[in-house]
Amino acid sequence: MSPADTVVGKLEGVQGRGPRWRALCPAHESKHRTRSLAVFEADDGRVLLKCHAGCDVQAICGALGLSIDDLFPPRRPDDQRPAPVKKPWAARDVIAALRAETMIGWLLLTDIANGKVVTRSDRERAKLAAERAAHLMLELERAS
């Protein structure tokens, strides 16, 4: 049984399905039976709990008869933390490339604003700049 199955199985008023559920928080009384507890199962099997009424995780676990450790999948003896992945680029290089692609877009928009006719070559370069910028922003997001 997964940690999420264990937690969700002990809750009342559960709505939703994996990996996201809402339920009544067991750590406080709800006058209107409001489902203030959000439960999320992360990709690595951890269970994340958030009571929107302000109860802390220890109180929620205690009310369920669980420990904080029960929110995590069991570690096998052969489990090792994966080595951090070193990106083959520096963030400053990605930012510089993003700045250059943004400049292409800015120049094209300036030309359009000034009434210049946009050539097919300009449109193709603008499309390439947009694709590259989207890719660079995704890389920066993944790095954070």
Secondary structure tally: strands: 4
Instruction: Determine the structural class based on helices, strands and strand pairing.
Output: alpha+beta
For the record, the count of structural domains works out to 2
Order of helices and strands: HEEEEHHH
β-strand amount = 5-15%
Helix content estimate? 40-55%
Which outline best applies?
elongated
What's the end-to-end separation, in Å?
32 Å
Q: What kind of sheet is the major sheet?
A: 4 strands, antiparallel
Short structural summary:
The chain is an alpha+beta fold and 144 residues long. It has helices at 3-10, 57-64, 91-113, 120-143; strands at 12-17, 20-24, 37-41, 47-51. The protein has a 4-stranded antiparallel β-sheet, covered by helices on one side.
Account of the 3D structure:
It is built from four helices and four strands, in the order αββββααα. By secondary structure, the chain is of the alpha+beta class. It folds into two domains: 3-71, no CATH class; 91-143. A four-stranded antiparallel β-sheet has the order 1-2-3-4, with helices on one face. β1 (12-17) and β2 (20-24) form a beta hairpin. 12% of the residues are buried.
